[in-house]
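Data deposition worksheet. Section B asks for the primary sequence of the deposited chain exactly as it was used as input, without tags or linkers unless they were present during the calculation. Section C holds the resulting structure in token form. Section D is free text for depositor observations; keep each observation to a single sentence. Incomplete worksheets are returned to the depositor.
Section A, Depositor: J.P.
Section B:
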Amino acid sequence: MKNSNFLRIYTEIVNEKLPENNLECILNALWPAGRDFDNSLKLGICISGSGVLYSDYGSQNFREDNAMIIFPNQKYKLYAYEPHTKWVCMETDVYRLFGESSLINAEYAYKLLKESYDNSIIISGSKYGHIKDIIKKILSASSDKLEYKIDFVALHMCELFLELKKFTPTTKHSVISGNSNVPDVIKPAIKTIENQYNKEIKIDELASICYLSPAGFRRKFNEAMGVSPKSYLTNVRIKMAQLLLKRTDLTICEIASRVGYANVSPFGRSFKLITGCSPKEYRDKFGKPKLKDPYPIIYSNSLEKFRIGAWYAIDAKYLSDEFIRDIARAGINLIFVGYDYSLEREFILKYSYLYGIECILVDNSLFKGEKLRIDDYMSSSAFLGNMIIEYPMYHELGVIGKRIESYSKKLHDKIPFVVLYPMYASGKQMGIDDYRQYINTFADNCIEKVLCVNIYPCYIGHEYKKLTYKDYLQNLSIVSEACRKNNLDMWIIIQSISFHESVRIPDKIDLRWQMYCCLSFGAKSITHFCYCLPVKRPGSIDVFSGAMISIKGEKTDTWYNAREVNYEIHRLSDTYMSHNHLGAFLVNEDSELPYMHFENQYTDFKYIRKLNCDKPLLVGCFEKANGNGVAFTLVNMTDLWKNESVVVSFETVPCKKLCVYKNGYANESLETTYTVELSCGEGVFVTLDF
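Section C:
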């Protein structure tokens, strides 16, 4: 028989009662799983009594026939509601277990462990009976004296990890919060605390949504959760703060504000009470290495911030708080969440807010019976708006306008989002042959805040030659004119993926070129299509490839290319957003490049005296919204296939300060002449202050 001295099975009697109103005492008493072994994993079945499990995550109630999983490096403590509460437990060094097994590939087993879950869990309710059955099989195999005991335990352990890996984030959240044991009457309060922990929450308001008196609510909450509502809220806030301390570069003051504290002092006191150390000490111990992150997560409280979005941003197979953090680390601060993810919506909104991401939600129940239904998520700080419709036909614009008006009356600060057809759509698709009339009718008659169009210009020709949609600039120009006329924000969805054999996967040059072209026409938001591979719909001929996240959930070259360009745009975005768009024009228009043409070019920009370049350029023109100044873009418009750089020299009218944003970085000059080299697809943003 193999050596199994790294595995033990035992009975644990819990008599200690929960200390009343003394959270510090409770948390100081937490001890790590692994008291007997390193890398310890502990499983148990409660065979009698009831009580509460306290852990790093918070509190979870348990009772007879509930199961418990304590993962390695988790601190926890069991308290009893009834005397002589009894558990049958197994504890093992999980790494030695897999290493000793002759049937299990240890590397595969470690991967499963990492991908399952890393918080202590109480398994309860018939819905998760199969999980409890696996734990019972592990306990049974652990107590046997068979020759192959280690192999049986390891096999069942892998089975357990595979089942846990299937949990959606919503399921995980439901299981670890112990909500199956929570009386329905206080569930609205739990949901409110979990979703609005960053806001001021009053006990009277929680009691009201539970239809209880404040005193009755406090009593029922304490009975169900083992702590007061205030303590529960504090636990949630500190848990979120721990994630931000470990995974972001936000200052402690910024973190305090983000998790609901108006002042850093009470935040520090609460944090130390719960974790036993100050926020600084916690970051020093568990945080990121103290190196300057070239791609810090972008947080902005400005309503006028530049938004870089992601379509198909979520893949439920890989959804976790780290998955959402990686979206933010790609320089994306806006995601579109499809109706397929209604079950995960609460989780997505919670962690999107944590990492500075806003969400536009697709909700099929939005206008059920023409009554607006958004109460489940309208209070979330990450909620930006709803998708009203994608690709309306011309004859539908009147109905869409009424829906937008109804939406805006109820949610005046949210965006009713509509995606319009691009110019290459057929008259049959749009319901009209005149594209300009299609766009202008929407802009003139819809009480909208934004006008959004998707335009995908990156094609591929013979011998993989790069081709570009011939009316790309004309399409941007028509949309830009309508936005200026109706004071709408122009949003563009750009191509970041291939969806047909005739469409190429955009590289870094293509991504940068699309973004600077959009800026030159005054875009206030740019969204990538797509972040994850879209789900292929029945009957669709699309074949998707080259998304930022692969089918295996891994970052692709597109993710890294998009991140570099996204952060370049973010670096100049505050300055860019302080200017209003006037129009655009071309220099050295090349008839051999069909995309190098658009109507109604701007001719009244008098601030560039000389512009010397022998290659085609796109120039976008702007004036400062508040103050005395102007700005312009310069974009290299040479054939993307040729990959040519250009040198541009220009002279402006006299000004106090000239600043050229290249690669997003400001280069100031007191001179009115400047020379800059632009690589293929590259652009610069130039400001003049008077």
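Section D:
The first strand starts at residue 7 and ends at 14.
Residues 71 and 118 are 6 Å apart (CA to CA).
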